[in-house]
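Reading is simple: the token line describes the chain's fold. The lines below illustrate.

. . .
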Amino acid sequence: MLRSLRMRLSATVRQGTMPEQKRKVAFVIMPFSGTPRCTDVQWTEIFENLFRPGLETSGYTCLRAEPSRGALIRTILESLKNSWLVVADLTDQNPNVFYELGVRHALCKRTILVTQEATHIPSDLRGYWWIEYGTSPGRVRAFIDRMSALIKEIEDNPEKSDSPVSDFLQQEAYGVSGYLTREYCKRLSALFTELTAVINTLEEIRKGKDLSGLLYFESLNYLLDALYIDVGTELLRECHELRFQLLALKMGLQSHNVDSASAISVATSVFRGIAKVRDDLMKGHFLEPSDISTMVWQPLGNGSRSPDDPLPYSRSAPLTDIDVERVRQQFGSRGT
């Protein structure tokens, strides 16, 4: 009966065949030897005439471990880790199957449970993806249809939890995320406080007081050197510009482009930007850019400054605005 169905399903598979190298791999966990319901031969028939054609219909290469000598368990573990999808047959509650299922749950999501008897699915797992199947033609067809629907659901939402293990790990991840958010808020608060001191000191410098030695910007340095949170290219550019101007003022290198007034303007803009990032982060509204912000110091042409003005010698700009290959060639050619 399964063999005759296999012939009809094979025709369906050929119509939707994808090139083998483009197929995702589905690994099947199931018994090798006989169990109360099936002999070893029957298990092989179920794999060849039910699981394989059903998964191939959805565009997957279907594999299972084969009894052999050598490092079998290592091969199975590699398959459990690397296969995009795993199907675990819990019929007769085979201990090896449960062991391998536990390993898969600890390593990856995207696992479907199947069984010939619903009572063989532990109660703790019945809230996740599972299918009951039989070997009669009608039940086989229903199984294939249900399998295809579940695979589509998994492909649409591959990170959906599929076990108590992934539920637990997600909760742990949220806990870690909450801890990191608090740590980032504390670092931004330190930078917030530091910027108020910088602005006050710059105001005194603008009044003619020689207080450049009191300019302190370690928290700003930490943000720029570690980039522990990505504040976006525009605010990042302003932070780099502020550090450049503060360093110039500490060294006594003032020009028509760098003085206390321009530094106050930049520092105030950075202060407002950092305050907004901190507030959004605390409220859970802050999202880092999808692409990591990367800045490059790019030399200005001679026409961008007067001959007697040593500053600014360069500007910061988002990596997306820069011809990266040209920058590589420019810096790579130096010293040759």
About this structure: The chain is about 55% helix and 10% strand. The beta strands are 24-29, 60-64, 85-89, 111-115, 130-132, 295-299, 314-318.
